[in-house]
């Protein structure tokens, strides 16, 4: 009597693993970033790079602003992101500002709401944000850069708020420029429309670094490298601490941050790992939690 052939089960015993892999893939692809007509989006090794791409001068319109807001909302909850970089394509302008045609009565309220939504999202972003100014940043273009934590630029970039020349003013810059520059200089830019050369912006602390154009890309990459090697969990608490302390009296801020440090930061794996690695003279192994 012939023995029955054994039943081949291998395609089926792999089902739990296959289901897990499918779910992981679905999770990844469901949170994938999509570039749009005027905004290129790339996530690689923890760096989320947003590139304005609306030639010739990367003017910001409502459609582009809404795309920016959507990506910022998605990225704020994305555990893969460690650093956000905002830059632009081209060599003349990072951005020449918001579309002037959308300042008219029919669209101005919608335009302001869209622009201020992006500014708020940049200010509230839970991880380090950098603006890499590949060219001049004017009007709303500079305001987006001001909303970032740090700013880098090419040597021939100019920075300015020329809105007053059009009979209007820049709400975001009116708040942030006097906090980032000596008041007299900020007022000269806001009230007189002065353009600031990148060398002066660096000298007054508005820019963190300036490079010649031929060294710009390499300089930005070198500047970013240390941030990308740090614990994401620690940076989340770091950003929260910086925001929470703003505008607070010293004693009140210190009490608030002391509790955050003891109750929340010290509950993370990475805080203990970083201290242990230092004492043991080894490289820390971050788990980003």
Automatic annotation (TrEMBL):
GO terms for biological process: fatty acid beta-oxidation. The keyword Protein biosynthesis does not apply. CDD domains: crotonase-like. Keywords: Lyase. One of its GO terms (molecular function) is lyase activity. The keyword Lyase applies. It comes from the Bacteria. InterPro entries: ClpP/crotonase-like_dom_sf, Enoyl-CoA_hyd/isom_CS, Enoyl-CoA_hydra/iso, Enoyl-CoA_hydra_C. SUPFAM superfamilies: ClpP/crotonase (SSF52096). Belongs to the enoyl-CoA hydratase/isomerase family. This is Dienoyl-CoA hydratase. It comes from Sterolibacterium denitrificans. The gene is dch.
């Amino acid at each position: 009597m012939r023995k029955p052939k054994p039943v081949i089960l291998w395609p089926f015993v792999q089902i739990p693993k296959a289901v897990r892999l499918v779910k992981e893939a679905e999770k990844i692809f469901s949170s994938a970033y999509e570039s749009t007509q005027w905004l290129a989006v790339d996530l690689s090794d923890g760096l989320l790079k947003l590139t304005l791409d609306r030639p010739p001068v990367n003017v910001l319109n409502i459609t582009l602003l809404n795309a920016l807001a959507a990506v910022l909302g998605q990225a704020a909850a994305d555990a893969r992101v460690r650093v956000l970089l905002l830059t632009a394509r081209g060599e003349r302008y990072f951005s020449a500002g918001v579309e002037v045609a959308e300042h008219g009565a029919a669209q101005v309220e919608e335009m302001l709401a869209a622009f201020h939504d992006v500014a708020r999202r940049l200010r509230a972003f839970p991880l380090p944000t950098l603006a890499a100014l590949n060219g001049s940043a004017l009007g709303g273009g500079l305001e987006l850069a001001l909303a970032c934590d740090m700013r880098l630029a090419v040597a021939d970039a100019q920075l300015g708020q020329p809105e007053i020349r059009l009979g209007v003013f820049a709400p975001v810059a009116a708040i942030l420029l006097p906090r980032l520059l000596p008041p007299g200089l900020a007022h000269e830019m806001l009230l007189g429309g002065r353009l600031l050369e990148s060398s002066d912006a660096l000298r007054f602390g508005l820019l963190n670094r300036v490079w010649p154009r031929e060294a710009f890309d390499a300089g930005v990459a070198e500047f970013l490298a240390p941030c990308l090697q740090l614990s994401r969990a620690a940076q989340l608490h770091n950003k929260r601490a910086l925001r929470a302390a703003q505008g607070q009296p010293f004693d009140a801020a210190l009490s608030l941050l002391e509790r955050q440090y003891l109750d929340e930061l010290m509950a993370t794996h990475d805080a203990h790992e970083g201290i242990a690695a230092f004492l043991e003279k080894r490289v820390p192994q971050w788990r980003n939690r």
